[in-house]
Amino acid sequence: MQQRNLWTVLSLLVLATSVACGGGETGGDAPAAAPAAPAFDPSTAGNVSGMVMFDGELPAGVELMMNSDPVCAMTATNKTSSTFVGSDGHLGNVFVYVKSGLEGRTFPASSGSIELNQLGCEYVPHVMGIRVGQTLNITNSDPTLHNIHASPATNEEFNMGQPIQGMQFERTFTTPEVMVPFKCDVHGWMNAYIGVVDHPYFAVTGLDGAFSLDSLPPGDYVIEAWHEALGTQTQNVTVATGQTAEVSFTFAQ
Amino acid sequence: MTWLHVYARFLCAATLLLIAAGGMVTSTGSGLSVPDWPNSYGYFMFSFPLSSMVGGIFYEHGHRLIASSVGMLTIGMAVWLWRVDPRRWVRRLGVVALLAVIAQGLLGGITVLYFLPTAVSVSHAGLAQVFFCLTVSLALFTAPGWQRTAAAGPTAPHASSLTTERLGMALPLLVFVQILVGATMRHTGAGLAIPDFPLVFGGIVPPEWTFSIAVHYIHRVGAGLTAAAVLVTVAHLGKHHRDRPEFLRPAGLLTLLVLVQIGLGGWTVLSGRAPVINTAHVATGALVLGTSLLLGLRVNRHRFPDLRHRDAYLAGRPTLAGSNSAPEATV
Known about the structure:
The complex is a heterodimer. Chain A is mainly beta.
């Protein structure tokens, strides 16, 4: 009896980690046929895709003054803020996720880790998403000192130093929170935002403003789009089996 | 001027520099740029490479180095006083200063390790001013002029007016409270809660109230009250104590400092909290406090043990310590 239970658990774990997951540019992990409640048959899944637009001319990026650290001044390849990025009316660096509609469902833990790099005295990526409990691997790729200071509202705050190039450390988050701000207090221009969610349905728009949330269970959802300077917008959407629902957001200043 | 007094003045100046350095830490948002304490990125504080003092580390680690130097200077001050000063209360004040600087260092460490909690950060800012007051006091008490007054005995000139004495005591307290409100404003990010100056959202009273707006507004009202209190004190001294240059000099300086301070406060808002302007506002606030304290101590000179005891001794009454020994040896 015990052996059978063990095999069941192992099978579910293998299934959970082997099924491709997630949606969107930087993607979370897609749901697997794991012990979710209520049960979700992947063959009934639908998708949400869309575009995030900016109404008007995108504000010019602010030039970053990096003179306070000669290493940054010499090595940085991008000296413009990443707050407003996009092209042709499309808005990038927008975190899009399912805000509600998945209550009561559980999803298998994500197997992989998410990378946050400090490269050229900026955070790469600038906006990203992560699952609750998923490992965040933070690396200093710069030949200068950085501190990584996360100041969440509900998760545990931390501030760690990485004085040596190549240093890494790992963190996890225990509670959903959109967004967790990160900053480097050494280099005041360095900041990043991480959306922590308890499901795999999130994405970050690229320069083309596009996003997709794949393999959603059929149902009604609230989709939220978050931008660091423009705030949030939400839309209701109904996902039907085998269908892709289109959702667009338009931000303006 | 004795070497001890020169040393005390140097400690006082070093403390002002330390307050300014702390102001730069907050003004540049560098308070957490060195995440560990008492080490700096794992290095022993004094072995941290100078080449790594970049960005916010320059301000935060620089602040720590200056603080350590002030701490050592304070140890020197306490030891020196203990060895040479015949006044027990001055020797004890040296020890109090040492305890204060130790507590200040611990508060600085705690505020870093706990991510700048407002209560701790404001306490750190407040204790900095208290410590500065202690150094100002020590510089004054070791001054030849202060000690000459004691040597003059019961005929030493007193502040003749009770009003003068009370103004002298109230003014530094008022300035200190004003500084605490300013520190609260600073450490809760309310420095620009009212974005215009000298008006308040184009009027006199804020149209709406939040905690930030309230703290900011109280600080502005406090500035007005402080300026009024200074003017009243200066006017009183000018009217009743024209023959007391030791009162009028700090009073004149205080007037100038308060005007500069209000200007810097407005400039801080209008500049969007430019770090250098903001820090100048903090440092000038300390100077206003120190000068008002100096004035308050001078107008209350006769209340200090070395004069009180001498009067009692010469009048044939027992000293406060219940001893009939010479006042220089007991106080």
